Amino acid sequence: MNTPAPNNGKLVIKLVAVVLGMFGFGFALVPLYDVFCDVTGINGKTNPYAATYQVQDIDTSRTITVEFITRTNTGMPWEFKARSRQVQVHPGELKTVEFYVRNPTGKDIVGQAIPSVSPGTAALYLNKTECFCFNQQPLPAGEEALMPMQFYVDPQLPEDIEIFTLSYTFYDVTETASTVAMNRG
Amino acid sequence: MSTAAEHLHHDEHHDHKPSGIKRWLYTTNHKDIGTLYLWFAFIMFLIGGAMAMVIRAELFQPGLQLVDPNFFNQMTTVHGLIMVFGAVMPAFTGLANWMVPLMIGAPDMALPRMNNWSFWILPFAFLILLSSLFLEGGGPNFGWTFYAPLSTTYSNDSTALFVFSVHIMGASSIMGAINVIVTIFNMRAPGMTWMKMPLFVWTWLITAFLLIAVMPVLAGAVTMVLTDKFFGTSFFNAAGGGDPVLFQHIFWFFGHPEVYIMILPAFGIISQIVPTFSRKPLFGYASMVYATASIALLSFIVWAHHMFTTGMPVAAELFFMFATMLISVPTGVKVFNWVATMWRGAISFEIPMLFALAFIVLFTIGGFSGLMLAITPVDFQYHDTYFVVAHFHYVLVTGAVFSIMAAVYYWLPKWCGKMYDLTLAKWHFWCSLISVNVLFFPMHFVGLAGMPRRIPDYSLQFADFNKWVSIGGFAFGLSQLIFLALLIKACRKQGEAATDQVWEGAEGLEWEIPSPAPYHTFETPPVVK
């Protein structure tokens, strides 16, 4: 033979390393995707942690319309509504809105709200100081509740965005309530 | 290099070849394994084709006629999986096994035992996949792309079988790819420098690198589906902090290079056949090599063109649109090089050349509809319609599958030592060519008119075109039985003896050995000048 066998072994080891590396890369895409989306805000996910509000100049020259959409996932029996379908805010102004939920069933349910902003880039400029979506929300059978959400829009919000939509979807997480991280937003 | 055939100490013929089933089970001979891969791929092609017949029978008329929608969904899913992983990819691996050692003057593949293993796990993968169809609730029904949450929240328990079968298919492809790379790196005959390698070898080398880069990502994606479904993880589950769109990113990071895995070896085959029957060397050899490499590299940065409608920001849509269009540059280089090879050549129209010419024309049609799909604003209209189905069947059936048939017609006399039945071959070509266009061309029209893919029923205004599509489908399916008859005849060694060179204009090491190719070749390496 024109090449000795050990050469094959070395090359095979390198190629297997590539294979294992790419298998790992497939999983690395999960955190990379989150980081990438956090930085660019392209998938409309809002920050899952509370922002601290510092009194700042309120830009009264601009008025932003924030619309609210409420949904429940398949199999989630809650009634879920925004008290106001939309609000007008000036960038930098702190605003509180309320959402109404009712558990019409005969059993206790734990819900988790997942926010999504459209257009996605607006998510970077939406800061929530308080949100029911930061925690899982238990609601006993037959009870209702008002859940507050307090936010302000960063004055850096790009000029071309005058209106954006914040959607919340409630998921039934009763079964996994104890195991799922409690601080997702 | 000794092959394991020599380690088997029974039934030694003059050719050192054990007989019976053990020859095939234990074989480490690249020609035997190539034959196994090719027959396996052909059987899978017929099974996947039968599923396409079910789909077309259901779609012959509007309304639900023959099968229930869940079974229809299983047919579209398993048809796709079988054709991609069971037919096209193993057929190319089979051709690589047969031809790469012969074309570079090597006595066998570099890792013959692994070669045996990588073939023999494949039948089990597809046995698992096909058996899931007979379980209660049926097999996978979420499309071959297995988007979450269809494959996680809404799928049944047979998803586990789907996942394991994809794992095994992936392992098989990865082993095959490693073998090809090691063979080409380490076993080229003296004088066979990189830029003297035949283009089929070049394209397969690049394909093999794509395979080891993206098949592990697919393995990761199915593993995440498995753990999301059965072990409570939340990779793709929004309630647990995951994101279903992430699935699409991971899948298409694999999926787009995958489509080049299925077309680059085809480019190699066409680049072998066109010069032979034009009796001219390939025009622009070096540019062909660089074009292949550029297509492979670009394939990693275009995946999100499958996802324009997921709500990406405009900047990302523009990036993926232009990156995708950029691929048409190296692809154009290839098409123009083939045309320039034929220019003023002494062309003759033998069967492989007919398939190669059909490939060039019809693949280009598929390439153009791909360019249309790449345009973001119009993709919103085309997305998930039959226009997409028409596009990828033009590039995969009249592209990849036609190239495989061209390759079989080109090298079959070398494998069997006999010229195949030319009458049957001509019937096969013309029936396939006409029926495949009746089958896929009208799909463009119903797609543009808004007929969605993967739905067992459709609006009445699509009825006429669908009837034609179904008729074309049945005709194309039946045409493949001509091919089956031809192959059976060829394997029985009927027909005229082929010369060593087989084709008048053929050049390369594989045409310097006797026909049929002896069981062991190039035990002393040839010297390439």
UniProtKB/TrEMBL annotation, chain B:
Record field: catalytic activity: 4 Fe(II)-[cytochrome c] + O2 + 8 H(+)(in) = 4 Fe(III)-[cytochrome c] + 2 H2O + 4 H(+)(out)
Main location group: membrane
SUPFAM superfamilies: Cytochrome c oxidase subunit I-like
Cross-referenced Pfam families: COX1 (PF00115)
Residues covered by the Cytochrome oxidase subunit I profile domain: 24-529
Transmembrane segments: 36-57, 77-96, 117-135, 160-187, 199-226, 246-270, 282-306, 318-339, 351-375, 387-412, 424-448, 468-488
Keyword terms: Cell membrane, Copper, Electron transport, Heme, Iron, Membrane, Metal-binding, Respiratory chain, Translocase, Transmembrane, Transmembrane helix, Transport
Pathway: Energy metabolism; oxidative phosphorylation
PROSITE patterns reported for this sequence: COX1 (PS50855), COX1_CUB (PS00077)
EC number: 7.1.1.9
Gene3D superfamilies assigned to the protein according to its UniProt record, in alphabetical order: Cytochrome c oxidase-like, subunit I domain
Cell compartments where the protein resides: Cell membrane; Membrane
Membrane topology: Multi-pass membrane protein
NCBIfam families, A to Z: CtaD_CoxA
Function: Cytochrome c oxidase is the component of the respiratory chain that catalyzes the reduction of oxygen to water. Subunits 1-3 form the functional core of the enzyme complex. CO I is the catalytic subunit of the enzyme. Electrons originating in cytochrome c are transferred via the copper A center of subunit 2 and heme A of subunit 1 to the bimetallic center formed by heme A3 and copper B.
Family from the record: Belongs to the heme-copper respiratory oxidase family.
Annotated protein name in UniProt: Cytochrome c oxidase subunit 1
Organism whose genome encodes this protein: Bowmanella denitrificans
Lineage: Bacteria, Pseudomonadati, Pseudomonadota, Gammaproteobacteria, Alteromonadales
Gene that this polypeptide is encoded by: ctaD
